[in-house]
Amino acid sequence: MVSSIVLMKIEKNKVGEVAEKLTDIQGVSEVFSVAGRCDLVCMVRVADNEQLAEAVTERVLKVEGVLETETMIAFRVFSKHDLEGMFSVGLN
To answer: What 3 state SS string does the chain have?
Structure first.
């Protein structure tokens, strides 16, 4: 599994519209509207680097309103949320 964080600058007044379109892209797991130098943070989780390249360059970058992106590939993912989810499956 390849996880990446895509920092995005979006055209003024199109943040919500772009975020909705991004959530429809295969591999995009979450989209966050954020404060700071970026407008959106897009989490992409795919099987391999080839799928990452396809998701970012052929889908994310083609969404109208996306001005600039910076993609960071995660070496490791540390998440209490994911670990708790794994251990709670099937336990009642």
So the answer is: CEEEEEEEEECCCCHHHHHHHHHCCCCEEEEEECCCCCCEEEEEEECCHHHHHHHHHHHHHHCCCEEEEEEEECCCCCCHHHHHHHHHCCCC
